[in-house]
Request: fold
Amino acid sequence: MAADLAKLVSRLESVTTRLENVANRSGGAEESISETSPGSEFLAAFDTLLKEKLGPFVDLTAKIGGDLVEQVQFVKGAFEAQRNFLEIVSKCKEPGPSVLQQLLKPTSEAIVKVQDFKEKRRGHAQFNHFSCVGDGIQALGWVTVVPKPSVFVKEGGESAKFYGNRVKKEFKGKDDNQVKWADTYYALWDSLQEYVKKYHLKKLSWNSSGPIASAGSAAAPAPGPPPPPPPAIVPPGPAADTGAKKPDMSGLFASLNKGSNVTSGLKHVSRDQMTHKNPSLRAASVVKASDAKPAATTGAAAKKPAAQVKKDPVFRLDGKKWAIEYQEKKQGADQLVVDQTNMSQSVYVFRCVDSTIVVKGRVNNVTLDSCKKCAIVVDKCISGIDIINSQRIQAQIMESVPTVNIDKTDGCQVYLSKECRSADIVMAKSSEMNVMIPQDDGDFTEVPLPEQYKSKWNGKTMVTEPTDIAG
Reply:
């Protein structure tokens, strides 16, 4: 009996303690999260990631030295800004887009600093390091991705490997710290991917029981310097005397004051003095051909067409842009393949003739400009494919692309994949366009795109639709 009573007293004391803790809380967003809530759990896991993965990367960077140390400090700042944002996420409900943008601003500004650091140091001895760091840091944008943000982190980490592998190749057998540095950076993104997959599988895990996040949820930034005082207003000085005489307007006003008599001083011209009444005067007034100066010939007819200079073919990566220019007859085994890509890169194809270009992986956008008899094959494209000022083009999408723009192009055939059958096709000033739609049995259905439209006023606006003979 005594043992049961003691146990009951112990339970009552426990309940009393918990009630006192709840009563002492002020009800603020920060105090409404218990230590065992899901929010505190994923926040603690992120702190562990910073300590175990980001810390060693920063330490290795310090050993390598150089300007890289400054860039990696920006990386550290970006992760710390994301940690502060995740703390808000752990305590609050998801806010509207405008507030969310304000809360993400510190992270986005830090990411921009990392990438700008790379862009301003082209030709630097550590440029491969800068590019590796700059291409990977974009993975911190996973907080805005729905669904499966972990896939976005994986792709960002893969982007870092293009230049990171160059670092490893350059220093293999020469400097183990450089090789370990690249591997540590890869491990940082691998760990972040696993973290996102575990705690934010489909989207960012906001606290559904907390208050709605506001701009005041984030720590206020330090006030900047006061604005400079306005420039002093200097009163205009006296106008400078140029010494030039002003025209005497008295004669003009005296003539105007005559009224209807203003024409009284004009000489009368008789009919025999009028050129349009006297053919002999018209003949006498013609300027002789020998006396006339040859008129300067202007316009396109006067200019001889300049011989087009044949330029050397180009196939290279300039920063984030693959430049493919002036390529001719690159077919079959000689086709041009872009296989080391990431989602921050673009592909620009200019003045190529009778060539095939294959773009593997995921890129930002692809542009064909002023090409003839060319074919392009694209795996994935984030923004879209632009085909402009070209003739007889074939474009095939193997996986996905949101938009295909066809502008000032004659003869274009687009092959869509099953994943992008709903892609937008935008046309302007183009002709002979067809889209090949894949069917379930593997065959393609050819659908012509309209070239001719008719518009009609319906009382409120112009309604435009393809004509019956369009296509």
The radius of gyration is 37 Å. The chain has two domains: 29-217, 314-466. The CA atoms of residues 159 and 342 lie 5 Å apart.
